[in-house]
């Protein structure tokens, strides 16, 4: 047995990856295949308690300071879409991952993988947008990297950003903290990012243009944490990006070993997104968002946190959409508009590829 | 949203459910033919609204599910060849063939593309004369007119690099087979509204007459289905056996004559194998000889491919309404949408996948 093969075996997963002997697009979907890949390949390879929490960011203590650290890669196609572009998305996506840990963003890195032949003007536009987004938030891009791959070996431009943030005293958010009786809050209408990308990519035109909801959420989070009587009354925050609302809810239900019941009629969806989803056979619960958050909060502060959210520009359409239950741990179910109940499962593969 | 919310109104739904409860005096077994209807029933939990006497079983109307294994293998064989761009509706990519699926062909470097319309496949053929563009033409009478139109255009334009792998099936011969079976339990059918939008419902009138069975053409929204069920229960309780139309906002008795004409011009009726069911005489469409230059089975030398279903999969019985997905020992365990053993677990319209996605709590509780 040669050395390479030995190394492969050491890093092979303890449980086989089903029949999947190759990486499929679905492994990047944020649905079940992604979860399986993380659980069976990455977690065993890198095992440590911080990673095992599977939050959107790692919280590490350094000399008494609690630092939040996160990284995200952006491969969205097309690079420019209604409501945003890959540059601003690369900033907001990483800042939002920090914000979901309650962290104030401190600084960012940006690494660019460029394909030979990419027009310099395109790169300039993306960098300008990235700079503007960072300036708007008040964080600097303090380090970076550039690589160029041969024509045909990339798709124009990929960006990776990492972010460092500071978690204030007394704040401890994690997806494993949802408890029966807690309320589930959603900051606004779902599905806008995914539909905007799809419409742009496929050249679909709907009545009423759908724009991506790409937006930074750190000030909304700060307002919510300040507005709750005790910051600890907010148990968990998640931004439902790839895999949509369903994936985020299922992840929390699974990590906290609780059930969830949500109410279909309470979930805000714009007419345009609903129409597009009806037409294309998509379910808005599975469509990506880039400027929305889910909050699991103790029941007694739910109304108060809702009020704070609605007073913030990013949370005007916030709603209480459901309750955490003791029964059916790991399952999310939904009261339908007809008054019946159904499961809201995680998606197996992907409804749409390369949306962020 | 207009034209959507009206058909999902809770109050009206409960009114229809109450009407069904009042009407029913004994047990009835009803089948919805179309996978789209199965999906709606599961997604909206309509079984929760029905009295226990009304049992719904799910029919063979999921085109992805009934596409035979050999045909999936042929698709994989063609898509794996160099110089080919294989174009399909998205659902077909995950359907397991006997050894692989189209997603794996794509992951292995094959040029496999997803479109919403066969006319998009034509565009790809026009834009890439150097590639052999093959469209996977599957489905019932609903998708047949658009697929026929694509082949018709290809012939008119002399597009030599466009062909279609045709695996079209027809609904009425399958209903005839189910009704003729000594194992049949179904006493009333909800006929597929989209198929009847194209074909009308003359053929269903004949079925209803021949087998003394009520058939109601139904739509796809929750209230459409509840109304169709109420109409079937009323017929059964009255001892009537008629073909009725619930989906009047879309379906007419003669159907869409233009769509039927293009189908007749391009396709002819032939025998067809259905996955999970087997050969049904005169139950499919194939390209007429004058379109042979666009027939992928003639353009590509594929040899004789034959394949067997995994023994564990009970899709044959599920697709005939003899057993429920949850009766399968593999359901939700060895057979899930990520690792499907059979086609009904693949497509969103497949009965097994619909159960798995929306009603698993009923299965496990």
Overview of this structure, please?
The complex is a heterodimer of chains A (356) and B (365). Chain A is an alpha+beta fold. Chain A folds into 2 domains: 20-166, PurM-like, N-terminal domain (60s Ribosomal Protein L30, Chain: A); 183-343, PurM-like C-terminal domain (Phosphoribosyl-aminoimidazole Synthetase, Chain A, domain 2), CATH 3.90.650.10. Chain A is 31% helix and 23% strand. In chain A, the strands form 3 sheets. In chain A, strands 9-11-8-12-10-13-14 form a 7-stranded mixed beta sheet. Chain A has a 5-stranded mixed beta sheet with strand order 1-2-7-5-6, with helices on one face. In chain A, strands 3-4 form a two-stranded antiparallel sheet. In chain A, strand 5 (104-115), helix 5 and strand 6 form a beta-alpha-beta unit. In chain A, helix 4 runs parallel beside helix 7 and helix 7 runs antiparallel to helix 10 (302-310). The radius of gyration of chain A is 20 Å and the shape is globular. Chain A starts with a helix and ends in a 13-residue tail after the last strand. With 365 residues, chain B is an alpha/beta fold. Helix content of chain B is 39%, strand content 19%. Chain B contains 16 helices and 11 strands. Chain B has a 6-stranded mixed beta sheet with strand order 4-3-5-6-11-10, sandwiched between helices. A 5-stranded parallel beta sheet of chain B has the order 2-1-7-8-9. Chain B is globular and about 65 Å long. In chain B, 55% of the residues are buried. Chain A binds chain B through residues 18-19, 22-26, 32-33, 36, 202, 271, 274-275, 278, 280-281, 328, 331, 333, 336-343, 345, 348-349, and chain B through 1, 4, 8, 10, 13-14, 42-46, 48-49, 94, 103-104, 106-108, 116, 222, 336-339, 348, 356-361.
What is the element layout, followed by pairings?
The complex is a heterodimer of chains A (356) and B (365).
Chain A: H1 3-10, H2 32-46, H3 49-52, E1 58-62, E2 65-74, E3 80-81, E4 84-85, H4 86-99, E5 104-115, H5 120-137, E6 140-149, E7 157-166, E8 183-186, H6 192-202, H7 218-227, E9 234-238, H8 244-256, E10 259-263, H9 271-280, E11 294-297, H10 302-310, E12 319-325, E13 332-335, E14 341-343
Parallel strand pairs in A: 5-6, 10-13
Antiparallel strand pairs in A: 1-2, 2-7, 3-4, 5-7, 8-11, 8-12, 9-11, 10-12, 13-14
Helix pairs in contact in A: 4-5, 4-7, 7-10
Chain B: H1 10-23, E1 28-34, H2 35-43, E2 54-61, H3 63-66, H4 69-79, E3 84-88, H5 102-107, E4 111-114, H6 118-127, E5 132-139, H7 144-157, E6 162-169, H8 171-180, E7 188-192, H9 193-199, H10 202-211, E8 215-218, H11 222-238, E9 243-245, H12 257-266, E10 267-274, E11 278-287, H13 296-299, H14 315-319, H15 351-358, H16 360-364
Helix pairs in contact in B: 1-11, 2-15, 6-7, 7-12, 8-10
């Amino acid at each position: 047995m040669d050395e390479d093969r030995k190394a492969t075996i050491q890093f092979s997963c303890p449980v086989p990856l089903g029949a999947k002997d190759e990486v499929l697009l679905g492994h990047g979907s944020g649905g079940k295949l992604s979860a399986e890949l993380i659980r069976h390949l990455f977690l065993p390879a890198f095992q440590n308690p911080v990673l095992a929490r599977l939050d959107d960011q790692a919280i590490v203590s350094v000399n008494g300071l609690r630092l939040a650290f996160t990284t995200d890669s952006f491969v969205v196609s097309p690079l420019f879409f209604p409501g945003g572009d890959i540059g601003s998305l690369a900033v907001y996506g990483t800042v939002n991952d920090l914000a979901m840990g309650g962290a104030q963003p401190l600084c960012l890195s940006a690494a660019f993988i460029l394909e030979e032949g990419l027009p310099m003007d395109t790169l300039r536009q993306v960098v300008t947008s990235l700079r503007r987004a960072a300036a708007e938030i008040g964080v600097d891009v303090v380090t970076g990297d550039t690589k160029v791959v041969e024509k045909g070996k990339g798709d124009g431009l990929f960006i990776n950003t990492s972010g460092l943030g500071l978690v204030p005293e007394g704040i401890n958010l994690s997806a494993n903290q949802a408890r029966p009786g807690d309320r589930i809050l959603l900051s606004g209408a779902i599905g806008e990012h995914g539909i905007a990308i799809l419409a742009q990519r496929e050249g679909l035109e709907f009545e009423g243009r759908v724009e991506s909801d790409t937006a930074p959420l750190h000030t909304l989070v700060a307002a919510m944490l300040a507005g709750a009587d005790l910051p600890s009354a907010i148990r968990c925050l998640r931004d439902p990006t790839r895999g949509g609302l369903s994936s985020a809810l299922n992840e929390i239900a699974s990590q906290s070993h609780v059930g969830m019941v949500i109410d279909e009629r309470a979930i805000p969806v714009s007419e345009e997104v609903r129409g597009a989803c009806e037409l294309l056979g998509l379910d808005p619960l599975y469509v990506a968002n880039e400027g929305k958050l889910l909050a699991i909060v103790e029941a007694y502060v739910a109304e108060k946190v809702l009020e704070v959210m609605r007073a913030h520009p990013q949370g005007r359409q916030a709603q209480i959409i459901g309750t955490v239950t003791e029964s059916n741990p790991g399952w999310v179910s939904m009261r339908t508009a007809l008054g019946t109940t159904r499961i809201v499962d995680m998606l197996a593969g992907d409804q749409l590829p390369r949306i962020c | 949203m207009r034209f959507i919310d009206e058909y999902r109104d809770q109050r009206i739904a409960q009114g229809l459910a109450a009407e069904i409860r009042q009407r029913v005096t004994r047990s009835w077994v009803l089948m919805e033919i179309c996978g789209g209807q199965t999906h709606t029933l599961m997604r909206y939990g309509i079984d929760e609204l029905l009295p226990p006497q009304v049992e719904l079983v799910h029919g063979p109307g999921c085109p992805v599910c009934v596409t035979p294994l050999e045909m999936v293998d042929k698709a994989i064989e063609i898509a794996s060849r160099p110089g080919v761009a294989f174009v399909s509706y998205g659902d077909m990519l995950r359907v397991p063939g006997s050894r692989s699926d189209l997603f794996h062909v794509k992951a292995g470097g094959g040029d496999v593309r997803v479109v919403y319309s066969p006319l998009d496949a034509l565009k790809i053929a026009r834009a890439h004369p150097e590639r052999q563009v093959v469209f996977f033409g599957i489905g019932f009478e609903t998708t047949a007119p658009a697929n026929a139109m694509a082949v018709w255009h290809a012939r008119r334009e002399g597009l030599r690099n466009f062909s279609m792998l045709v695996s079209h099936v027809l609904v009425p011969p399958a209903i005839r087979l189910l009704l003729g079976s000594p194992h049949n339990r179904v006493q009333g059918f909800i006929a597929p509204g989209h198929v009847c939008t194209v074909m009308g419902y003359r053929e269903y009138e004949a079925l209803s007459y021949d087998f003394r069975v009520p058939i109601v053409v139904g739509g796809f929204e929750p209230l459409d289905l509840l109304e169709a069920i109420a109409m079937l229960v009323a017929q059964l309780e009255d001892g009537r056996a008629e073909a009725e139309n619930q989906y009047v906002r879309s379906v007419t008795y003669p159907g869409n004559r233009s769509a039927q004409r293009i189908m007749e011009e391009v396709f002819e009726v032939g025998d067809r194998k259905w996955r999970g069911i087997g050969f049904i005489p005169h139950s499919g469409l194939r390209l007429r000889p004058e379109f042979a230059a666009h027939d992928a089975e003639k353009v590509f030398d594929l040899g004789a491919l034959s394949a067997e279903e995994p023994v564990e999969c009970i899709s044959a019985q599920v697709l005939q309404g003899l057993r429920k997905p949850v009766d399968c020992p593999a359901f939700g365990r060895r057979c899930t949408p990520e690792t499907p053993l059979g086609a009904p677990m693949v497509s969103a319209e497949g009965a097994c996948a619909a159960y798995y996605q929306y009603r698993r709590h009923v299965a496990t509780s």
